[in-house]
Amino acid sequence: MVMVWLFCSIYWGSLYQMLEHTPNLNCIVLNRDRDTLGNAIVQSLLDSNHGPYPHNTWIEVSENDYPVSDQLMQAIEPKQKYWAAIEIHANATQNYLQARSTGDASWDPQSVMTMYYASARNSVGIPSLILTPTQSIVDAATSELAGNMTSKYLATAGSNPTAMQALSRAPQTLVRPFEMRMDDLRPWTTNVGQAPTFVGMVFLVILSFQVVLSAFGARMGIQQYLHFRSLMALRLITAFVTAIPISLMFTLLDIPFKLPFDGNFSYGGGFMVYWLVTYCGVCVFFLALESSIIFLTPRFIGVFLMFFLIANMSVSNYPVETASSFYLYGYAMPFYNLRQVYLAVLFNVGERSNIMKHVGIIWAWFAGILLTYTVFVWLDYRKRRQAYLAAEARRAPGC
């Protein structure tokens, strides 16, 4: 009962009032049209900042900030300054009016604006927390604008046979003349990617847990005869050596399911980066569990395991920004940083230099746990050694 309320509530809380936190996802809109269509879309997006949830925070940017579309796209990926961007193309209104008046059958409703996003950045959150609300806002704005413009045009040109003939050649200029083209800069190309980037990390912890329990039982019979240096070496070698096949098999498992190791590097290079980062993560899991089992013993190690898993899972699936400020700790958690490296390797998410930032955080976990682990092992060794010597003294002749 206590564990349910203490630990499970952490995960429940990460999903609580998620829609109310969608304004934390900043997006930008660039109006190159500066006419009826562009102004209407921009105003609708800015008005949505104060509308009902879910909605994102939309910021209007200047053409001077992003003179070309490539710079706007780079702000989404790989720089990740914003979660999405809408670009209303130059002369969108005038191009539409000309197509309607001349009956241009080649008029493309999606030529007026484009939305840039990267679904691989967060395949779970982006569709429901960004794309769906934004599409609803844009659809409502364009439908209202198209209705007003069409009614005014028919009122003035309805009796003009030439105008009606032009409309018959290009009916799309009358019915849904404006749509938004969706440009996924980093597409989520396979649902199998959800396995290693979320649930797979849980499996890694569970596998590490099984090895830690087995190693603990195997050491019990001999550790009283070992000096501290030998005991420490035995513990570390067990963890570091066992982590090699676990991380390697975890990486090899992705090959038959055709996960794209060549998303950011060459196929071989991506495989090696993925494997080595996984190895570092497994070592962190081993040391964390080994440290906790010293004081909790196998009887209560499951308590730490549950807490460790829930604390990591709560911040590794949806964007951290969509949870309360309590969950900002997620940026420093192993699951979150492993996931970011996996996304970078498989789907080219983020700048390549960010990989070292996330790896550095994992190494910081490794170094911090290793230092405390050494202290914990020493304290445990001294206690057990004293108990062993005392027992030997009692068994000695003359006692």
From TrEMBL:
InterPro entries named among the record's database cross-references: DUF3533, MNNG_permease-like
Residue ranges of the TM segments: 198-220, 232-253, 265-288, 300-320, 359-379
A Gene Ontology term for the protein's cellular component: membrane
Signal sequence residues: 1-17
The organism's place on the tree of life at top rank: Eukaryota
Keyword annotations from UniProtKB, A to Z: Membrane, Signal, Transmembrane, Transmembrane helix
DUF3533 domain segment(s): 1-367
Name of the protein this chain belongs to: DUF3533 domain-containing protein
Organism phylogeny: Eukaryota, Fungi, Dikarya, Basidiomycota, Ustilaginomycotina
